[in-house]
Design brief:
Keywords: Membrane, Transmembrane, Transmembrane helix, Transport. It is found in: Membrane. Helix 6 runs antiparallel to helix 22, helix 17 packs antiparallel against helix 21 and helix 19 packs antiparallel against helix 23. The longest helix is centred in the N-terminal third of the chain and has 33 residues. By secondary structure, the protein is mostly helical. It is built from 23 helices and no strands.
Length: 547
């Protein structure tokens, strides 16, 4: 029995009159009008006492800070938009700057894309420590403003070194994203986190959809709308400017969205660091008074005020969360890379030979499943089960995700070589899926649906990880540093996972190891290691349920 229930029973016993021969066995229970009222219960029924205590617990649920949560979500979406908006046009941009060799274009585009993540890796923990000292709000405002400026000037670059510098600076300021995670943990507690964290979790997928849409639709506007001949004179200079800088417009729009995030953070976001929180009351109640940083955690005097990474890693559960976060990010990043390669590769080389449009539809479906899962299923899971158990189950799903993909190639080979449904198989020249029989295609799409759905079930581990960090931090003042440390491990994983996964796929296909499917077995074994780390977390984690 937890402390709240013990106090409730003590209050019940203190006000209950002593039982006599005339005391009725089933006396009516009087429910107080407010949860602070003394509970009047003279019945010895344990079931009635339990029901009344449950009623009191439900009434004491902390209200969700809706304004702060919406502000956080809108500010959080800035980084994925700025990160992904360059993907549709970066190859054309590099060619526009004078690089004509196709192999060199691929090299430089990959370097420019990865420089953002590398810069985040170098500075994410330092930003988190600064937020523990100077507060969350100023760090978030500075970071979002920096992302806005660097995103807008990116399209003005006249050389590849300028692209890299602007991209690195954007990653430097974008490393403040972990501080936003910290604020979410400080404005919620165990009674309302089941509603807050899933809503916050969909901002990443949504931003990753909006960014490429902006980049693809607004890049090189002068060429796309060249058929418009009747241009007003006052727009002539603008058209000439966009011809000299054809990739400025998508960065400008993304930067304006970031500036809106700066305005929201400045005017609407409250400081959540306990030592710097303003004592402003609303309706007689101090804001966020029930946050974990005050009511659920206690400062440990045995730890220093500003911990180092070594100090945090000396805590077993923080170390386990950091390492399993590395494995989780490797699972998620590697799956996206491997899924695209697997779908694009010809069937005889171990893939599915999907055209790019079909791959795009499949990835869009993945984003839809992720959003629906976060909104509708995650809150139910968090209210009914411990976050550590959810995290462990989701990590256990990832080995299955990787092992399902080779099975799809086997099905495609059977349909291609032996002509299921009377089809002649896949056309080796055109590489079109349409040459497979209807029966084979149906089975393949069911398999793709299963693989993508399982990957989104495994993705539930991301918000569960955030909740576990919040509930297992050694003391409240460490929440920012701990979030930064775990995000550092995830960022490190993002930097190496894509190259590792693509290299493993190429190695497997070149030497035909395990029929070209060695990459799937290798990543399944890595995912098993992540699941083993997640099991150790479930054994030592604090409870995340509200009652």
């Amino acid at each position: 029995m937890n402390s709240a229930a013990a106090r409730g029973l003590a209050s019940i016993e203190s006000v209950s009159p002593p039982a006599t021969e005339r005391t009725p066995l089933l006396q009516q229970c009087v429910v107080p009008s407010s949860p602070e009222s003394v509970l009047d219960l003279s019945s010895p029924s344990l079931e009635a006492q339990k029901n009344l205590l449950d009623l009191k617990s439900r009434r004491e649920t902390s209200p969700l800070p809706q304004a702060q949560l919406i502000t956080l979500c809108l500010v959080r979406i800035v980084v994925p938009i700025s990160f992904t908006q360059i993907f549709p046009y970066i190859n054309e941009f590099i060619e526009f700057l004078g690089v004509t060799d196709s192999s060199q274009i691929g090299f430089f585009s990959g370097f420019v894309e990865s420089s953002f993540a590398i810069s985040q890796l170098l500075f994410i923990y330092h930003w988190a420590r600064l937020s523990d000292r100077f507060g969350r709000r100023p760090i978030i405002i500075i970071g979002t403003l920096g992302v806005a400026v660097m995103t807008m000037v990116f399209g003005l670059a006249n050389s590849i070194p300028e692209l890299i510098v602007y991209r690195c600076l954007a990653g430097f300021f974008g490393a403040t994203a972990s501080v936003i995670h910290t604020v979410l943990g400080e404005i919620t507690d165990s009674t309302n986190q089941a509603a807050a964290f899933p809503l916050y979790g969909i901002t990443g997928p949504v931003g990753s959809i909006i960014g490429p849409l902006i980049g693809g639709s607004l890049s090189n506007p002068a060429q796309k709308f060249s058929q418009i001949t009747d241009t007003p004179r006052f727009l002539t200079r603008l058209v000439l400017f966009l011809q000299r800088h054809p990739y400025f417009l998508p960065g400008l729009v993304s930067g304006i969205i970031s500036l809106l995030g700066v305005a929201l953070a400045y005017f609407c976001l409250d400081e959540s660091l306990p030592s710097r929180r303003r004592p402003i009351t609303q309706n007689g109640v101090e804001p966020h008074a029930n946050s974990a940083s005050e009511s659920e955690l206690g400062d440990d005097p045995s730890f220093p005020k500003l911990p180092s990474a070594r100090t945090l890693l000396s805590v077993p559960i923080i170390r386990a969360l950091s390492l399993s976060g590395f494995a989780l990010e490797m699972n998620g990043t590697s799956f996206v890379v491997l899924f695209v390669l697997f779908c694009y590769t010809p069937i005889e080389q171990g893939g599915l030979a999907f055209p790019p449009s079909v791959i795009g539809y499949a990835l869009a479906f993945t984003g839809l499943v992720a959003g629906l899962t976060q909104l509708f299923f995650m809150p139910i899971f968090l209210r009914r089960f411990e976050a550590a158990k959810i995290y462990s189950v989701c990590m256990a799903v990832w080995p299955l995700v990787f092992l399902v993909l080779p099975c799809l190639n086997i099905i495609a080979r059977c349909g291609s070589n032996y002509g299921l449904d009377g089809a002649d198989g896949l056309d080796r020249v055109s590489g079109e899926l349409a040459q497979l029989g209807n029966h084979t295609k149906a089975i393949l799409w069911v398999g793709v649906f299963v693989a993508l759905t399982l990957s989104r079930v495994g993705g539930i581990a991301y918000p569960a990880s955030m909740i576990l960090i919040k509930n297992n931090v050694p003391c409240p003042s460490y929440l920012g540093s701990t979030n930064g440390l775990v995000q550092w491990f995830m960022c490190l994983s993002r930097c190496v996972s894509a190259a590792f996964a693509s290299s493993a796929f190429a190695f497997s296909a070149k030497y035909n190891i395990l029929g070209g499917h060695f990459w799937a077995v290798l990543h399944a074994l890595i995912a098993v290691g992540g699941w083993w780390l997640a099991r150790s977390i479930s054994l030592s984690s604090k409870s995340t349920l509200s009652s």
